[in-house]
Amino acid sequence: MRKKEIQPPRLFQRFFSWYCDKDLLASIEGDLFELYHERLQKEGKFKADLRFIMDVIVLFRPGIIGIKDKEYKTNHMDMFRNNFKIARRTLWKNKPATIINMLGLIVGITSCMLIALFIQHEMSYDTFQPNAKRIGRVVMEYSFDGSEESSKGTFTSTKVAPVLSRTFPEVEKGIRMNQSSAILQLQGNPVTEAGFMYADSTFFDAFAYEMIQGDPTTALNGPRKVVLTESMAKKYFGEANPLGQGLEVGDDKSIYEVTGVMHDYPYNSQFRFDFLASFSSMGMNQEESYWNANYTTYLLLQDENSFAGMAEKLPPFMEKESADLGATINFTLEHFDKVHLYSPYSDFVANTNIKYLYMLAGIALLILVIVCFTYINLSTARSVERAKEVGIRKVSGAGQSQLFWQFIGESFLLCGLSVVASFIAVYFLLPSFNKLINRELILGDLMSLPFLTFTLGLTLGLSLIAGAYPAIILSKFQPMKVLKGVFKNTSSAKWLQQSLTVFQFGISVFLIIATLIVQGQLSFIQSRDLGYDREHIVSLPIGWNTDFQKINTLKKELKASSQIIEVSRAASSPVSINSGYSMNLPTRPENEVISVNANPVDENFIPATGLEVIAGTNFTEQHIRQTEIEPWEKKEFHYIMTESAADKFGWSPEEAIGKEMILNQQGTVVGVVKDFHFQSLRNDLQPLVLFSASWGGRLLVKINGENIPESLRFIEKTWEKILPERPYAYSFLDEDYDRMYQSEMQLGKLMNLFSTCAIVLACLGLFGLSSYMIQQRLKEVSIRKVLGASTFQVLNILSGNFVRLVLIAILLASPIAYYVMSSWLEDFAFHISAPWWAVMVAAVLTLGIGLITSGIHGLKAALSNPVNSLKSE
């Protein structure tokens, strides 16, 4: 007798059952099992299993292997046409299920296509660069002797590229780059061009380019030479040949010779430009200092392996180089092809955090899971309806595999139609999606080979994943039970339906909580008291070299209007101050300096920005005029510190007043302001010093906000009167602030959009499932009503099960979502605590959706006439 508790290897049992002739299967299988158990007693399980496997392999030979289709040769094309016809008729016959499944698939696939386009775009950054794998971006880290704090970023001096190129054989070329806006003359009118980049002539050795006109070997080999993109060549010279022509650049209208024209640089690049000028035009290329680090340096290495060599050699080399500098300086290299997604430092183009792509990919996957689960749920719920169809087909001679592929064919047809509809939807939605995420995704990407491969894989994957389980269940029905009418849905199928429903709503709960927390953090960012006023402040670039008297005249003219509250000149607005300085005291050793940010401002900066002076006074007009004196050594500086900066010297705000300190040079502290956020909320509060200065590249105009368009027209009119040589351009301080959190804002928008899609899909699934499940219980409902059950009692019975499933989903998903989003918030130095009310809102919202969705069908069944359901009994 066979021992049930110990069996031969199941995989080989199934393999033997699959290949053995059906007429021989019972007798041979019995002999194999009998032999197995004899060996089990004599030799033990391991040897018995091994010899069973050998027997199964040896028996795999002609005479034992079953011959399929002995009497006829299957016409696969006819079978395919027949299955296609049946699938089409079945889908058409069951319109409610087809519509729900197809709507779900279209919404889900469209969402995934849009997310995939976005991810493909972000992953494609710099992939067109042939040398991407062997280019490194230089990162500088420095700390002053005696200071515990260090600064790190992609700022480098002009010395770095030539020194590293000469010193290390691993470095093939060094490229220095800098981007800024420039004023050009277009038909006699000044125009500000934001995409004006300076680069060494080695740019063409390291980076990709498509030159239309000009010689790349000489295009940037001297000062005041510039290469235009094709669009700029047409803008400034029309159809004329631009080579050898001159462009007036800058406030002094310097003539730059056009030495080349190249195709517009790809959008998916970490640097973009319209004008590429020679780096020597800046007059900084011969500086031999590691300070004045205001440029970006790239190194073209000999090969990919050179990164490891440079990582070993750079620290000892820089230790020697910085021995007499009063500071420790070190350089590291970032892999060029990893910068956009993995680097914390943005230079010319804002980076995208790889974590956000993972989050979006996760949302896309969850949406697909919901779509698949909806299909499986509806298909298994309808299995009772299709049982007789399967029984008749099996009695008529259909094999299990034929039925399996027929149901897979239905799944594939539905997915295929949904993919076509999704392509059409993406075509029309893409322009709006681009506006939402501030990208330039193009329709041509839909037809790219990677995207088509992704779409084909998605279609096949969905068809198999969503269709496989229902196909297996349906094809296994036993025709005798089905045709006798004693068939009912299995407990395992019901368990699966309930599990999938829990999982669907668990995903919805997770996404609702995640979306609420993201929106809460964004709201916190936008409403946070930053310590300064950013409302109704207009920021205008004025140029560092614009005459002091002209700016004073402009300020007086503007303040003559009642609409203008205050006007200030400064180097940077309070939104973003990132200028590295060192401060010290005359009484301390020279090498005991403290790293600090600093901003040159005039006497109107504090009133314009609303900074709070907590000790001392503001700058005076006299303080500003004292910085106009030449030469530099005779200038007199005064300083206003933040609380954090004063604390670095161990001073209280009151103690700091009147103290002498050294920044540019020795000067007097006249005031202390309350700490404020002059950098992203991702960073901790840093010390800051404001120093009196008559220069600065930005004008801040505080308006009353009563009539903003009229105020802007007045500012423009006054600007054109005083500074006609400079183009008028402006931005609002609150808009500049919002741009710092562009990635988070985009994430919030996408979370809102696709979370809504996921919730809608989950509701569609529950709507369809509840419809079929309640339909199967109509006779039960009718009997209960005949026996006196009230409408509420019937509704409670029908909807109660779905409500329990939703409650389980809430209990399972809430702690996971809370933990994941708490980890995300840790990326910010200043953030909200993950709010408990987000879990409550998600729970109430999901429970309400579940009640409404299932209650619609439950109420319909509870109010139905029992006679209609029982008249056939």
Describe it for me?
The chain contains 28 helices and 22 strands. It is an alpha+beta fold. The strands form three sheets. Strands 1, 2, 3, 4, 5, 6, 7, 8, 9, 10 and 11 form an eleven-stranded mixed sheet that branches. Strands 14, 15, 16, 17, 18, 19 and 20 form a seven-stranded mixed sheet that branches. Strands 13-21-12-22 form a four-stranded antiparallel sheet. The two termini are about 45 Å apart. About 35% of the residues are buried. About 0% of the residues have low confidence.
Q: Output the radius of gyration.
A: 37 Å
Percent of residues in helices: 40-55%
Q: Beta fraction of the residues?
A: 15-25%
- Total strands: the figure is 22
- C-alpha geometry: elongated
Residue-averaged pLDDT: 83
Work out the count of structural domains.
4
Would you identify the regions where 5 or more consecutive residues have pLDDT less than 50? 69-74
Structural class: alpha+beta
Number of DSSP helical runs: 28
Largest sheet: 11 strands, mixed
Q: Note the gap between the termini.
A: 47 Å
